[in-house]
Amino acid sequence: MATQSKSQFLNDIHTHLKRRYKPKPDRSPGRLSILEAVVYGVCHEDVTREQANQALSRFKDEFFDWNEVRVSPIEEVREALADIPDPEGRAQRIRRFLRQLFEKTYAFNLDALAKKPLKEALKTLQPYEVFKSDFVTATVIQLALGGHAIPVDESSRRALGRLGITEPDVPSLRAVLERAVPKNRGQEFIELIEELAHDTCLPETPECPRCELRKLCPYAQAAKEAAKGGGKHHAAKPADAPPAAAKHAEKAEEKSKAAGKDGARKASHPAPDPSPAPAPASSKKPSARGPAAPEPPGPPKSPPTKRGGK
Fold this sequence. Notes:
Elements: H1 3-21, H2 34-44, H3 49-62, H4 66-71, H5 74-79, H6 87-105, H7 118-125, H8 134-143, H9 154-162, H10 170-180, H11 183-199, H12 218-228, H13 230-240, H14 244-268, H15 305-309
């Protein structure tokens, strides 16, 4: 797909989703500090924006400062993530980042990086383990560093993939989106895709009939065609299978071929004649009373004259 046509397709997706979900300013966290954007990115990956906003608010309300989060037991950090999947893993990532930050800077403020060129700021942030996540990196670029980035998690990637926007990995997909979607619409676009992913484009059973994009989405169109042809497909199975007569004909042909092969084998190696053959003369000893087999009928022989004279 050419870049222009892909841009137009994504623009159509944006327009349709905007009718359905009507983005509101209060849904977005707005401009955040770099540290807040990191925490927000960890909280927001593969969950709704509302859940991530609530988690970030709990961190600010329930802890005195970020240093308290750093020194708190993992159970207390996890409580701020109670309604989010994998709270244990997320709590460990957040606390590990805060500890690494304190070890390097002895502070919890990275805002000076926002004044530096984007590449230089990212180079400074890359050593932190949390930035191994492309989603967290893009979130920080978008919400704290003022750059053009579209964070893509697995939920958004699933929805985009069903729409036909696929790439071998997340960074490549993000690059495609950032070229096709202008910066001033990037945040709203990905918010709408997230709404779609958590509303109708679900992992196991997507609800295509009530999806706003069902007329644009290749996956929805294929599902619709499969649903239409479902009954016909099952009814056609018996006709597709060979009928009984054909099966018998196939079996007869197989037997005929086998018989032909067997006949050729017999011709090359003839079987012995089943009729009894006369035994050779030397095969049996003559009895004292006469020959082993009677002679053919004929006129009786007269006894020898000499013996008769005696």
